[in-house]
Design a protein that fits this description.
Layout lengths: L1 H12 L7 E3 L12 H6 L3 E2 L3 E5 L6 E4 L1 H6 L7 E3 L3 E5 L4 E6 L11 E7 L28 H6 L4 H19 L1
Parallel strand pairs: 1-3, 2-8
Antiparallel strand pairs: 3-6, 4-5, 4-7, 7-8
The protein binds copper (II) ion (CU).
């Protein structure tokens, strides 16, 4: 019973999660000699997404003010990250600025400015270039059994919709 409810919540949540992991610099990672302005211009940063920094031992990551970003200033970072791999949740919309505080690295290009956009209050689907078109609305959900419903669908997204409906019906019946 509680198990079914938990599963239902999990399954209901799954289709609406469109979080994207943005690996800074792509395959180049966080390093000198990479144009992060160009990289960022090809990304859409949405609240709920994640920024992933991966780098070698000579680097680290500071979140800084716009002034420090502009001047490669390394004093008083807002937040500091280290260890070679950091995943930073983008929790609010607006601008964020990062740089590598290792001496000379910022001026060699290790600085990143991103603009995070809100995803709330919008009725249009997220423009995520890496995902296929969203699944169509489910049909015939009221009469067929979960297995009957799922057998008609072959893609994973349809399977998810079927499972959600199935567990939803089961949950409603149990309650
Ligand atoms: Cu560096």
């Amino acid at each position: 019973m509680a198990m079914a409810a938990a599963l239902l919540l999990l399954l209901l949540a799954a289709p609406v999660i469109y979080a994207t992991n943005h690996t800074v610099g792509g395959s180049s990672g966080w390093d000198t000699g990479v144009n992060y302005t160009a990289w960022a211009s090809g990304q859409t940063f949405t609240v709920g997404d994640y920024l992933v920094f991966t780098y070698g031992s000579t680097h680290s990551v500071d979140q800084v003010t716009q002034t420090n970003y502009d001047n490669c200033g390394t004093s008083n970072p807002t937040k500091s990250y280290s260890g070679g791999s950091n995943t930073i949740a983008l929790t609010t919309s607006g601008s964020m600025y990062f740089l590598c505080p290792t001496i000379g690295h910022c001026s060699q290009g290790m600085k990143l400015a991103i603009s995070v956009v809100s995803n709330s209050g919008s009725t249009s689907p997220p423009s995520n270039s890496s995902s296929p078109s969203p699944p169509p609305p489910p049909r015939n959900s009221s009469s067929s059994s979960p297995s009957g419903a799922t057998s008609k669908f072959c893609s994973m997204s349809h399977l998810m919709v079927g499972l959600v409906l199935g567990f939803g019906m089961m949950f409603a019946l149990v309650v």
